[in-house]
Queue: 3 jobs
Job 1
Amino acid sequence: RRRKAHFNSGPRATIQGAKPSSATPVTSMEPPLLPLIAAQLNHLLAYSPLSVKVEQIWAGSRNARFSDRITISIPFCLDYVKCDVIYDALHPSVAPDVVFSSEDDDFDPLGDIASEGEARVSKSSLCDWNSKDPSRLMALVHELRDLYMHYQRRRVGELDDARLKFEMNTMLPREGIEVCLVSLPDRSEEVKFAVPLLDMDLNKLVPACTWRHQQKIYLQIIFPVSRSYSSAPAAPRVKLVSTSEVKTLFSIEDVKLPPWLDGMCMAEYLPAVEDNLKLQVVEAIASIGARRRFIEALSPLFGRPLEADPVLCRRATVLCASGAFTFLVHFSIPTQFPKQQPTLVMQSSQHFNSQGTPISSPPINDYPWSPRWDPPQTAERIFEFLVDECLNFKKFCIDAIPQ
């Protein structure tokens, strides 16, 4: 049974080429999309606050001039929900069909809309579809995600599990929480909560950051479904989850979560997690300033860096010379600087291996270091170390050149 989210469809046909982007890993040789449909897809990828992924653009018939189907993944509950958006290239003004995967066969978006009456139908993005409006696909995707969220809440709410009913009633009023029922063939059912943490704007805390989407840190909590009441229910699995951008700010994996005590609920557990996490974020923001001061302290000794990370200050490269021998020094500065020291890599500008790649040293961490030194003293000690180490590196380069 195929679930479709549209009100009146015309005959099937074909579509046109969307501009590839970082969110569209599409490499197939399928025909392009029609301009009207490509404009909607490009608008979705450029302006949606959701990190939607395009999995595939394809044609529904052989030898078609245009593709007419787009497989997209919509982020939900720290995972993705996949669906096919099916346009009609022969009649591109017709609203598309949306078909979800077999795992979501019970999800009926049209039924959910109709059950709320005519007022809800009139507000649907599928009502009076305007193919010339590039924002319509984005509105449809957001609407479907909201409907899917309510569908998953209803599924979890229908479970005969006293603990989950309590967690749902106490936590769902909290803004931004998402929940879903996970059914796997090789294990019993589980319920997954995604709880956004910290009431602070991480994007604004990092000066001059170029993060496109709003960055969040979530606590993932997975409860096993219990069909009968137990005085000692099993503790859930808990894990911090964040985007890759947040991981460049500080290491989520290094944050130690408190134990889940017997009889504990999410409302009791979350405050301790957030208090600890807030301290980690404050330290990570302060570390950016420390790294920036360290990079600035390199200039009086090494000269102005050739390259430097201007936002998070995680990297810098300087040009050095010892007589006629010139080389680069790459600084990789950890997020926990100054508690942890930078890693250095020396790279010759005159010696190359058999593949034509400049010869580089192994990572260097055995130089004089103390987290108590101020940035100028730290830079000076590194400079003095490299004055001697560059001679060893020059010999290493000469020995590494293939004969």
Note: Residues 255 and 264 are 20 Å apart (CA to CA).
Job 2
Amino acid sequence: MGKGGEKGGESGEPETQLRCYTWEEIQKHNLRTDKWLVIERKVYNVTKWANRHPGGHRVISHCAGEDATDAFQAFHINPTLVQKFLKPLLIGELSPGEPSQDRDKNSQLVEDFRTLRKTAEDMNLFRANPLFFSLYLGHIIAMEVLAWLMVSYFGTGWITTLILACILTTSQAQAGWLQHDFGHLSVFKKSSWNHIVHKFVIGHLKGASAKWWNHRHFQHHAKPNIFKKDPDVNMLHIFVLGDTQPVEVRQSGLTVKVLREQREAGSSSLTPRKLTPVGRWVLKLMYIQHAMGKMKTILRISKLELVFFFQGVGSSLLTKRQKFLESHWFVWVTQMNHIPMEIDCEKHRDWLSSQVAATCNIEQSFFNDWFTGHLNFQIEHHLFPTMPRHNFWKVKPLVKSLCAKYGVQYEEKPLGKAFVDIVG
């Protein structure tokens, strides 16, 4: 097992005779300046490619030294096309005596999950219904237009402001769920079409950055609830999460510092209504900064917010009310599936086990589906990120059956209990 394979990967010319590597050797290449990963028993050196990775360098780095087969299949809607980018990075393959899975993972569970995915593909569950997403976008635009007309005809009086706040809260929340669909490439067959519409929805309707969202959100999906890998739980100086972090913080002597920072910030600054609006405006500033030219910036900011800006004080109150309501809606829905679940350091589990341990479902109903943007099917969404959301209920029985077979806990709860569990 020589080092010649490493040279082949960096030069962009894979060798004819592939080198064979053991898992012990592959796992050593998980550093910032040295990253290997395995996809379908093939070994790739992604050290230099990571910075050019469309999904960001962090998400691919999180899989360094591991079998990334399931993550690769989960995030790419056309693996065959992506293979052409992988080919120059190929440096070898697993030795014949090496198992396909690293770190003593249950190989039969992994194979059964991949069989389940193939079954879902054969059932056309990865094919989107154009009518569903057209109607969904239509009801968002209808609410935005209605708000426009109300501002134009009725101004920004108190009664109008309250009604508008409810309408805009609903349209913005639903636009947030819709941009999530396009961001995950779950609507169109071509990635480029998904990216274009994603930029429109998140940029024009939400006023945020598609690139920033992609780079953070895919890290969350690759390693949910994993400290130092999932940005959604890297909040040490605001909250300590899970069962192990509070103990580690206390033992490391950081407790006093963290408590002092929390006290200085004030308990009110840690509420969802404070955190999320600040984050939204930071995102908008970042997005504007990256926009090319003044005209592009104006076009990509929500026109409705420009109207509110020029309307003055009344519209300022409207914006505050809308963001107050929307931030609560967004935070409670997105956190009820993750924060009450296991939050810990990397355990190198298989794809199914790691995703189910960090997520839970909310009971299905027409209201719950609409209110959460089908994120009440969080387990299915995390297992199959590119699957159109209207098909989650179809694959759910298959997922539950597989979890039951291997004793993997599949948690589902009522909406009310999920809200209460966040507080707990």
Note: The radius of gyration is 23 Å.
Job 3
Amino acid sequence: QYKFRDLTIEELVAVNKTYPNFTFSMNTYTFKDGSQKDLLNFSGTVPVKYGNSYNIPVRLWILDSHPFAPPICFLKPTANMGISVGKHVDAHGRIYLPYLQNWSHPKSTIIGLIKEMIAKFEEELPLYSLSSSDAARRSELLSYIAKITEGETDMKSKSKIGGDKNEGCCNKMTVVGAGDLGIACVLAVAAKGVADKVVLLDLSEGAAKGGTMDLEIFALPNVEISKDFSASADSKVVVLTVNSLGNAQTYLDVIQSNVDLFRGIIPAISHYSQNSVLLVASQPVEIMTYVSWKLSAFPKSRVIGVGGNLDTERFQYILTKLLQAQALGKDAWIVGEQGEDKVPSWTSSNSVTNQAETMAARNSREKVANRAMEVLKGKGQRSWSVGLSVADLTASILKDKRKVHSVSTLAKGFCNINSEVFLSLPCILGTSGVMEMVKLEEDPLVQEKLQSSAGSIHDLQQQLKL
């Protein structure tokens, strides 16, 4: 069942050598949504010095996408131990550490995780000793809980009366990354009432600060902030806004650092929301959409990039409102790759009867398009404007609008493109992502530009280490 079996076994052998007290077994793990899976786990104690020396019992569950997804970690207190809820441990004994949040293979290892666990527990001891009466009551409680589940509470055991009325049926989405863009997406989605529930997955270290702190203070309805990948479970749309802030020197290094970041995110996200649509807003969007598709193993229809949606909406607005070219605006699209290499195109031609009229119409349209592109050139893509574009795309997916958007989609087979690259093309979006690609009007200049973009993007992808 494990996708990377040899890597997993190799690492667990190393753990056994360093911490021989750990015992390994296969058990059924129950996730928050009630789904279950047989997972490898190991239990043991980690040595902690906090005045005296203590052995802290823990259990680590190894996901089937290990080592690309971090383990799920719990304290395993005995009947005479109580859990000290703190910044690294919740009331259920779930362990949260920066090492888990920033997990990235091959840099991150289980041995490294245990070392950080020891260091953090030495700063703040996670368990305390119960009195005999407390211990008896806790033993009774633990016995009851053990009948329900191992790990987290089985959501299926909830009574339907008084349970979560939206459970299993709500339009839930997750935004990964709590930077300016991530917060802008949350605010735009909330303002437009697009989703029933929004989870903002904050992968930064430390307590909430800046925008996430403000979101917590002012408590937007139906918005949850979490550092735990499992909070994203059963999302119908997952928006990726994260970008690496490393010290890369070259453009290729920048992209590679983003790829490394995604290697620690995409497997976990796709594990918890196996039927979601991945909507990529990270840069460069064409390459990061390709990376998301490869790492998730999702069908191509369910991995899309924000691509030219914002530029297309602006382009259509300029044509219709500013240049009074209403007839052109509805069929105009910005396609190709984001940035200077984007190109205007059309999905239908004017109803003309001969070649001369066709050429005259095309020349007239080209002049208007050039004017519109000049106006568009001065418009930057700020976080809030991209956030509005993301909300627009999310609404089309969650509400199954079947609306046409210019989004980054797999372009192989289009315009004689033979490589696996993602380019912005007009697509009909619905609950399963891309429902259908809309045919563009044949234009040799557009085809040449798309093929050129595909070639340069493919060359970059070949140099990346996935």
Note: Residues 171-348+360-465 form a domain with the Rossmann fold fold (CATH 3.40.50.720).
